[in-house]
Amino acid sequence: ELKVEQNPLFLSMQEGKNYTIYCNYSTTSDRLYWYRQDPGKSLESLFVLLSNGAVKQEGRLMASLDTKARLSTLHITAAVHDLSATYFCAVVGFSGNTPLVFGKGTRLSVIA
Amino acid sequence: NAGVTQTPKFRVLKTGQSMTLLCAQDMNHEYMYWYRQDPGMGLRLIHYSVGEGTTAKGEVPDGYNVSRLKKQNFLLGLESAAPSQTSVYFCASTIAGGPNEQFFGPGTRLTVL
Predict the structure, then answer these.
(1) Residue A81 belongs to a domain with what CATH number?
(2) B18: buried, middle or exposed (CB in 10 Å: 19+, 13-18, 0-12)?
(3) pLDDT, position A95
C-alpha cells in the first residue's frame, strides 16, 4: 500500500528565510505532484515531477524528486507572506494511472 | 473552458437525508475522482472512474455511491447522511495517459447535523 508522509505538518517561518518541506513515499513511483491550497479554496497544481532527478522552479519555490530515495523536496527561498498556504505532495503508484495518494499537507505561515 | 465545476457549493443536511453532488468537466478527461478533505487528514479518495460507465472504490467508499453515465459528469451520492460525512468534497479529473496531473473543482462544503 502506497503511503505518503510530509514533514513538517506545520511551519512558521520569517519573511526572507529559507526552508524545505519533505515528502517521503513508501513504494516505487516515478510521478510526484505538488499542490498549493489557500484557506477555503481548491487545490492548485504547482509542479509535476516525472523522473528521477527532476527539478522544477517557479519563483521562490523549487521542487525536486529522488526516486531512489523515494523523496521529494519543496524548497522555499526568501519567503514572503504570499506563500502562506497549505502545500500537498501526491504520488501515483508505479502502475501508471492509478489514483493519487496525498500527504497530509504542510501548513505554511510566513510572518514578518 | 469552465474546467471542473461542482454543484452545490454548500449544503446542510439532517442525519438520514440523501443528496447528490454533481461534478462536471469540459476538458474531455477520461478519469474523474471524488475526494473528501477533513482537517489534518489531507485528501482521501472516495471513488473514482476511468471512463464512462465504470467506477471503482477508493480509500473511504463506505456510505457513498457514484455514477458516471456521461463522460463529462461524475455524481456522488449519499443515501443516508451521517454526521461523520461532514466534510469538504472535491472532484478532480485528468486525461488518460500523460502526466496524470489532476485538475480540481472548487469544492462542496457539506454539513450533516
Answers:
(1) 2.60.40.10
(2) exposed
(3) 55
The CATH number for B97's domain is 2.60.40.10
Q: Choosing among B66, B102, B108, B109, which should be mutated to test the A contact, i.e. which has the most A CBs within 10 A?
A: B102
Provide mean pLDDT across the span A74-103: 87
Cβ-contact B77, B68 below 8 angstroms: no
B10-57 residue pLDDT tens:
999 999 999 999 999 999 999 999 999 998 888 999 999 999 999 999
Cβ of B97 and A97 within 8 Å? yes
CA distance A86 to chain B (A): 10
| Number of folded domains that form chain B | 1
**What is the tally of structural domains in chain A?**
1
What is the average pLDDT value for chain B, to the nearest integer? 94
C-beta atoms of B42 and A88 within 8 A: yes
What residue numbers bound the domain in which A50 lies?
4-111
Residue A106 pairs in a beta bridge with A87
Residues of chain B found within 8 Å of residue A33, distances taken between Cβ atoms? 101-102
At a CB cut-off of 8 Å and minimum separation 6, what does B17 contact?
A: B80, B81, B112
Long-range contacts of A56-64 (CB under 8 A, 24+ apart): A63/A34
Mean pLDDT of chain A: 92
The domain in which residue B53 lies consists of 4-112
